Amino acid sequence: MNAPTKLEDAFHQLIHQNHLWGLWEIASQMTPHPRPEAIAHQWKWSVLEQVVKQSATAVPVGDERRAMQLFNPGLNGQWATTNTLIAAVQVLLPGEIARAHRHTPAAIRFIMQGNGAYTAVEGEKVVMHEGDLVLTPSWQWHDHGNETQETVVWMDGLDVPLTKALNCIFFQMHDARRAEESKPVNGSKALYGHGHLAPTWVKERPRFSPLMLYSFDQTMEALHALREREGSPYEGIALEYTHPQTGGPVMPTMSCRIQLLRRGEKLKARRVTGSSVFHVVQGQGRTLIDGKPFEWAKGDIIALPSWALHEHANTGPGEAILFSISDRPVIEALGFYREATS
Amino acid sequence: MNAPTKLEDAFHQLIHQNHLWGLWEIASQMTPHPRPEAIAHQWKWSVLEQVVKQSATAVPVGDERRAMQLFNPGLNGQWATTNTLIAAVQVLLPGEIARAHRHTPAAIRFIMQGNGAYTAVEGEKVVMHEGDLVLTPSWQWHDHGNETQETVVWMDGLDVPLTKALNCIFFQMHDARRAEESKPVNGSKALYGHGHLAPTWVKERPRFSPLMLYSFDQTMEALHALREREGSPYEGIALEYTHPQTGGPVMPTMSCRIQLLRRGEKLKARRVTGSSVFHVVQGQGRTLIDGKPFEWAKGDIIALPSWALHEHANTGPGEAILFSISDRPVIEALGFYREATS
Amino acid sequence: MNAPTKLEDAFHQLIHQNHLWGLWEIASQMTPHPRPEAIAHQWKWSVLEQVVKQSATAVPVGDERRAMQLFNPGLNGQWATTNTLIAAVQVLLPGEIARAHRHTPAAIRFIMQGNGAYTAVEGEKVVMHEGDLVLTPSWQWHDHGNETQETVVWMDGLDVPLTKALNCIFFQMHDARRAEESKPVNGSKALYGHGHLAPTWVKERPRFSPLMLYSFDQTMEALHALREREGSPYEGIALEYTHPQTGGPVMPTMSCRIQLLRRGEKLKARRVTGSSVFHVVQGQGRTLIDGKPFEWAKGDIIALPSWALHEHANTGPGEAILFSISDRPVIEALGFYREATS
Amino acid sequence: MNAPTKLEDAFHQLIHQNHLWGLWEIASQMTPHPRPEAIAHQWKWSVLEQVVKQSATAVPVGDERRAMQLFNPGLNGQWATTNTLIAAVQVLLPGEIARAHRHTPAAIRFIMQGNGAYTAVEGEKVVMHEGDLVLTPSWQWHDHGNETQETVVWMDGLDVPLTKALNCIFFQMHDARRAEESKPVNGSKALYGHGHLAPTWVKERPRFSPLMLYSFDQTMEALHALREREGSPYEGIALEYTHPQTGGPVMPTMSCRIQLLRRGEKLKARRVTGSSVFHVVQGQGRTLIDGKPFEWAKGDIIALPSWALHEHANTGPGEAILFSISDRPVIEALGFYREATS
Predict the structure, then answer these.
(1) Domain B35-340: CATH superfamily, name plus number
(2) Quick check: helix, strand or coil at residue C247?
(3) Full-model pTM
(4) Which class in CATH covers the domain with range D34-340?
């Protein structure tokens, strides 16, 4: 390109001062494929464990939660683990309550340590055990409480960066520390948690799953019933948690998955549009992300950006299990889903 | 109305000979509400049991099934238990095979007696136990076999009258006595039968449920988890078996339901558009249908026509459980669903 | 098959007296493919015209309509043109009103003769011209009136046999001769009739099309815009009238189509599940149905049963246009659609 | 809050160096309601016109387009008119061609000046006139050409910021300057542009509207047919351009609307989640946005951020017409839609 003429210069000055910009000045942002600012990153359990322990004494649960947010190093201090998702590690000590509030960002909890604490969701007390998935969908009142004698730790997953990018964040603090219990304990599990049988007298059809608790025992049952199957060459025995009334994702903005890698299993590489956060539930392995190896073990959390080529391998002595959240439902609803194997 | 004039007579003669008929001649068929020709009718287990026993020696399984079809007394010898549904009681002796075939009418089996026989559905052997619901959806190859030492009895439910009314019956006999087994035994249960978790590598999205076996133990678990709930004033603790990929009915033409009536429970009267066939799984009770009482006990089968006012009561010493099939998905898909309480 | 034994005889007697029938006695009803009782039949305009003329003096409009119903000769006097559809030719003289009523069977009108009469549908007066399609969906109040100086003739199409087979007929006579006009004349056309533009303030999403009038001028415009296209080898330039809010059929139970056969065009043979009624809007041609030729011209009406092999040819000097109704949406919603070319 | 203790300090240091951040440090980002960084902003036609004129000589069409992008002053130089949308004013001189390319961001064009130029979309040449809406959906090849004697100007609208936030941008330059014409000129209008009539032989069901051209004459016809209606108290006679096969928005990521304000009409205030860009097609008026008045006239473009309270008034001597794009389909698909009137 030649040096700009005076005419060109004057023109650019005119447009810039009027908040206009030439396409030719910015067209390089139309990249041949996604180039996320978020990077692949791993939070090791060895570090998280230390943080969990110190957090107990260092910071109070306060009006907020004792939740350590995983900031993606590529995102310049944004509240984001990937472009659309935020993950956190949350700690609740015996006797503590995390005050009731609600917000439009949807949340999930995957229980990492401890049994018997609860999340109350829109009036339903949901008792949590290790490996359980608990939902707190968009704009549902929720508080957390630990009436047990042990510290409870879970991974939070929320769609905060997405909700923020859409300028749709609403937040409300509850008047009371705990919202009123208006439903039976684990009541949604009674309604939806036993096979494919739907209560005919329930008329509500929310966008989010009305089942708040996906118990780990059922998850393991499902994985093990399929452990001899071929599964996906890219994901192994990968199951999506589903909305009982639609068969679709548990939330319109987040998909939750559980994935079994058999002993010695080495999956094939693939890239997909959309980002994920993985949590190692069991076992150990190695994930290559755009050529960089991430050695993982129980408790680790890994951020996987959009379109990163990734391949998982189980390198441990037993089965490995990965839980993950992703923005796949958004990507698919808007017609942006793609995959490639190189 | 006055006596017809000559002109009128001539006109009617003209139109009738040309296969035309005046609306005024037939308008009474536009009834204020449905007036089914099918009637409410009960087949007592005491009779069915005798029939089952005698059938073993009286008729061979042959190329057809040893299936005794429940003909509604109001339907003049039509192959129909209600206007849209046919139910039957089928008997398979030890060592017998009911030859493989397929047809567009969809079928369900609800196991009444015996454990361990199988229905093979499109290559999947499904092992059946008492209280199980087994699907053989439209146009899926299926054969039945009894490799156990005991006689097996089940209730068949099909949408034959509907399929026939729509002029959509196709039938094909398999070349072989048994279709080839191409899938793991109870394989669809492994894929879909454990909680709300969907195998991500399966891309098929059939109109019918891909889960062929709804086990009785899960059904009972679900019913009992809800036995303290209020449920429906008309149906009690009534659950619909659902399609895991849609949350909807198991077939586009039939809904299957299971219903718990607690001890002493007396439900309210209601009428709905669409017809059903009930089977008593457990307990005893009384159903009033358009004022006529039907006293029922385990094993009975009852036909309930469209728009009949019906109310169920548990009159026995324990819980009562009713299984039923209905044409509700058709009625709803076409916009004809209505209900009334008197 | 050998002669029945005494045991067999006794068994059959037992089951029959208990309203049971052996599958082996009736299995021949599971036919390899549909065998409709309805036959292909043609009502010639030369006959219909004579009937229309005589009807004016022979029968009053009364509380009913002066509607001559096309009875399929194969259906033994049932109120049915095919297994699911009834067509009729209706005549309204200057000054007449056909009293307001509503019924669950849905109806369409295709205007054959006369301009300026109206059908009032749920408070909207719809003014009708030749070639227009007018809807009166399920359970919508409707009356017809002719304030012009000429006799008006149209073809009615209803899903009466289907609604009856489903035991879902409801009918109600209006207290008044004419239901109250509560909406602008042709108001739904103003809302939905100009391009693909939807009024954002309307929240209703009925199952049936909210557009009551599909004007012939638009239909012709659409056909002619496509007259150089290849179209379908079986149907030519065939367009389906659509529900503006879904893009699907105008009613859940009936599809309406318009079809252009270019000069000299000879379409290929096909059979489909589901039945239709054709009306010749313009031109002349020949349709072979299961090998039998039907020569048709403007004004004729032809019943086409399910699974009949049919091929259309334009044999006239100009373009031919066929309007038709079918039960296709039912067939598709229930998963029964099939086609074959021989 | 008290001053942090040493323990707290050490803890924060630990977590920050490990890319963790306390929720208590950032919770203020969970705002009670959306607080967009984008601001309401107006680009006056008087300025745009000058830019359009100068652009003709100052910059070539090159391999890119001569498209001046409207940068929201609140968004710090991001390529964005609102958080999710980018609008631009594009100029094509007689004889010019804007080279063929495709990208995952979807685009619309609303023609501001000039008649007879074209956009070729996936093989279909679409001829454009003032007031027309032309689609170039996600990943469809498109080039623009001006074979007329006059300069053509249009408004572009794209979902670039959204696609970027989702890390889903793909872009590809075509090998040839112009993609091959494989379809009839304005062919999609022939297929879908005449009333609610769908070609039965077309099997494709894209997520985006298959109708590429929404002609202004139809738009005006629709608006004028409704000009006596009440319409919406917040939007007046507001129509959404729809996907002919679904009745929904033209793209999964963008809604296009046209809106008539009658003479003297003053609409009520409302805020909604989601952002829009308005373009004044005709007339003049005033829009109050969060209390700030924007006086507008033909040709102006206005950015409206999420949740901004806005009210439109027609202050001119005749009817006013506003065209707008918004991210409403995204907001609704993800369950984030809300509105409030204060």
Answers:
(1) Jelly Rolls (2.60.120.10)
(2) coil
(3) 0.96
(4) mainly beta
